[in-house]
Amino acid sequence: MNKVTTLNQFIIEQQANVPQATGGFSSLLHHIGIAAKKINREVNKAGLVDILGRAGTENVQGEDQQKLDVYANETFIAELKASGECCGVASEENQDVVVFEGEMSRDAKYIICMDPLDGSSNIDVNVSIGTIFSVYRRKSPVGSVATLEDFLQPGCDQVAAGYVIYGSSTMLVYTTGNGVNGFTLDTSIGEFCLSHPNVKSPAQGKIYSINEGNYEKFPAGVKKYIKYCQEEDKETKRPYTSRYIGSLVADFHRNLLKGGVFMYPPTNSHPTGKLRLLYECNPIAFIAEQAGGLATDGGKRILEIRPETIHQRVPFYTGAKDMTGKVMEFLKTFE
Ligand code: AHM
Ligand code: MG
């Protein structure tokens, strides 16, 4: 039988490589894994809403039903607070940052930016959704309450980043800046098990992912690139395949493994792009780069953008190195 490495064993083994580690970071990751399992449990029940009750109604036990994204947000925040290793959270679900004022949390070294349940349009229709998270070391002194400055750090300062995909299987994929590793949830033992060690994305693939319904509003370079993807060329194995789920995590994950490029350019309705820098683009960009890929806003590296607000949006192009590079070439040529 093959040896199975659980997420917790893996975290402990990784910690052993960092002699000065106190265990705080490992504990934080452990708590993220627990939150993911709790959310997974509820996501799996989503199809039963008609039996168990809809959001805003009472279920058979007389408990109020919550929307899944609210549940995911509250579960993550409660878990991070309980960990004692996190002093605050910036979440897609909260207008302002949430700071933990308890004594243990004030002594914590880390802050988290997260999208607790991304791909909201897919929640009700049994299509893959995800959780995205990003970990930073705080800037404010340990012992104090976290400040906004702690959250407005560029993505290159991330200590760790990851996502959970609730798909045909549930997976947790993360990086601490030393490669990317993927763990699949074995529901029979309730553990994430290492299934995709040291993930490397192919430099060139065949998939392009974009909401083509917005085609008319795309920048000229993106329109030309889409046409390039559709043209026939034996040498470069075109036409490419178009795949778009509408869940960033699911679209990115597929492209990461198979080779592809994901694009969310500026449109009329979202002139600076739709996706959020802090808790969607930065964590995905960190993973993309660690797997050998690229992530840009069309000109700059995503990880070098200095955030100004916590819900800031940016254009986003990420995936296989050569494909993302080609998109940038088109954007530059057809400005
Ligand atoms: P959400 O945070 O409201 O779920 O929106 C983010 C999602 C991403 O997962 C996905 O890539 C994108 O929005 C899809 O947007 P669109 O439906 O405009 O193609
Ligand atoms: Mg989102």
Characterization of this structure:
This protein is α+β, with helices and mostly antiparallel strands and 335 residues long. It is 32% helix and 21% strand. The chain has 10 helices and 13 strands. The chain has an 8-stranded mixed beta sheet, sandwiched between helices. A 5-stranded mixed beta sheet has the order 10-9-11-13-12, sandwiched between helices. Strand 5 and strand 6 form a beta hairpin. Helix 1 packs antiparallel against helix 2, helix 2 runs antiparallel to helix 4 and helix 7 crosses helix 10. The chain starts with 6 loop residues before the first helix and ends with a helix. The model has no long low-confidence stretch (mean pLDDT 93).
Number of strands: 13
- Going by helix content, strand content and strand pairing, the class is alpha+beta
Bound molecules: 2,5-anhydro-1,6-di-O-phosphono-D-mannitol, magnesium ion
Gap between N and C termini, in Å? 56 Å
The percentage helix is 25-40%
Proportion of residues in β-strands: 15-25%
Q: DSSP helix count?
A: 10
Indicate the mean pLDDT. Answer: 93
For the largest beta-sheet, the strand count, sense and barrel status come to: 8 strands, mixed
Rg calc = 20 Å
Order of strands across the widest beta sheet? 2-1-3-4-5-6-7-8
Q: N-to-C SSE series?
A: HHHHEEHEEHEEEEEHEHEHEEH
> Uncertain segments of ≥5 residues (pLDDT<50)?
none
- Gross morphology is globular
Topology:
Layout: H1 7-16, H2 24-44, H3 49-52, H4 68-83, E1 86-91, E2 98-99, H5 103-106, E3 110-118, E4 129-137, H6 148-151, E5 160-166, E6 170-175, E7 180-186, E8 191-196, E9 207-209, H7 220-230, E10 241-242, H8 248-258, E11 260-264, H9 277-290, E12 294-296, E13 316-319, H10 321-333
Parallel strand pairs: 1-3, 9-10, 9-11
Antiparallel strand pairs: 1-2, 3-4, 4-5, 5-6, 6-7, 7-8, 11-13, 12-13
Helix pairs in contact: 1-2, 2-4, 7-10
The protein binds 2,5-anhydro-1,6-di-O-phosphono-D-mannitol and magnesium ion.
2,5-anhydro-1,6-di-O-phosphono-D-mannitol binds next to strand 3.
